[in-house]
Amino acid sequence: MKQVIVKTERLGAVLSIRLANSASRNSLTDDLRDQLGDAIAQASADRGVRAVLLSAEGPTFCSGGDLGMLKDACDPWPVLRRFRRLNQWLLPLLTLEKPVVVAINGAAVGGGMAIALAGDVAIAGESAKLMAGFFRLGVVPDLGMMHLLPRLIGMAQAKNFLFSGGTYTAQQAQQLGLVSRVVPDDRIYEEGLAEAQRLAAGPAEVMGLAKSLMARTFETSMHDMFAFEGFGQALAMSNPEFREGLSAMLEKRPADFAGAALHAQEAGK
Questions:
Q1: Beta carbons within 10 angstroms of residue 4's beta carbon
Q2: Given CA atoms 187, 193, 196, 201 in this order, what sign does their dihedral have?
Q3: Less CB within 10 Å around the terminal CB: N or C of the chain?
Q4: Nearest to 117 by CA among 177, 196, 167, 162
Q5: How many Cβ atoms are within 10 Å of 22's Cβ, its own excluded?
Q6: Do 115 and 148 contact (CB within 8 A), yes or no?
Q7: How are beta strands 121-125 and 181-183 bridged, if at all?
Q8: What number of other Cβ atoms are within 10 A of residue 217's Cβ?
Q9: Distance between CA 211 and CA 254 in Å, rounded?
Q10: For position 2, what pLDDT does the model report?
Q11: Distance between CA atoms of 10 and 16, rounded to whole angstroms?
């Protein structure tokens, strides 16, 4: 029986996904990638899941590539096959049309840093560190780092960080906007869950739609973005979350977005 190294748990409208192979510092083994992909597929398929919390057990969030695998599978075809599989686990994480909160504990190294940046909101423990690591190993940054990092902090800072094999403390990452806030280490999971629950209680389906549109902004002209926004708004205003939000505003009461979505789901809409 295969060892469970990615744990999932439904906590109301939040799916908690935990990397749980602390013996290997949650390195990106084939099994971890496969199980993470399965967890993301579960989050995507279940309409009752309105937000995701991604966290890790042990002192390390993710140490990046598994060195044993890299040693044994570094010929061109094994590498190419490994990267072809990104659409089975990493792309679904990046493009999940639901809010994703990442709770970063300890070090996130190389590809592990890419995973830490793959969500929508990141919360870091006080001792968390984001570490480049790639050039120390003699490989190019991967798992989307060369796409994500320049967009998040700018090209010049991204180059300086990656080429120097740099490390950002949690506080530095917050100053750069890579994490939204820094919390005590023993509060990281609770704070991450509270943020995921807050997002799940909001118009999560509409947030997912906005997330999908914003992902296109750097490669899309202003006029095309206007068109995307128009199409997106037409969809959003046909969603029960909009009708609930508008009614709540007019009636001067708190909106129950999750309840409106559940009612629509039960009605088969």
A1: 11
A2: negative
A3: N
A4: 177
A5: 14
A6: no
A7: parallel
A8: 13
A9: 24
A10: 80
A11: 6
User: Are 52 and 15 within 8 A, CB to CB?
Assistant: yes
Distance CA 39, CA 18 (A): 9
Interacting residues of 148 by C-beta distance below 8 A, sequence separation 6+: 114, 117, 118
Q: What is the pLDDT of residue 74?
A: 76
Dist. CA 221–CA 248, nearest whole Å: 35
CB 226 within 8 A of CB 187: no
CA 47 – CA 241 distance, rounded (Å): 14
Contact 68, 27 (CB under 8 A): no
Strands (E), the chain: 6-11, 14-19, 51-56, 100-104, 107-109, 121-125, 129-131, 167-169, 181-183
- Other C-beta atoms closer than 10 Å to the C-beta of 90 total 23
- CA torsion angle 186 189 192 196 (round to 10): -150
Q: Under a CB-based contact definition with an 8 Å cutoff, are residues 210 and 242 in contact?
A: no
Q: Measured between alpha carbons, how far is 65 from 134 in angstroms, rounded to an integer?
A: 10
Asked whether 192 and 123 are in contact (CB, 8 A), the reply is: yes
Strand ordering across the sheet containing 129-131: 107-109, 129-131, 167-169
pLDDT in tens, 62-88: 999 877 777 777 788 888 888 888 899
Longest CA span, the chain = 64
pLDDT one-digit tens code per residue, 212-230: 999 999 999 999 999 999 9
Domains of the chain, first to last: 6-200 (3.90.226.10), 204-266 (1.10.12.10)
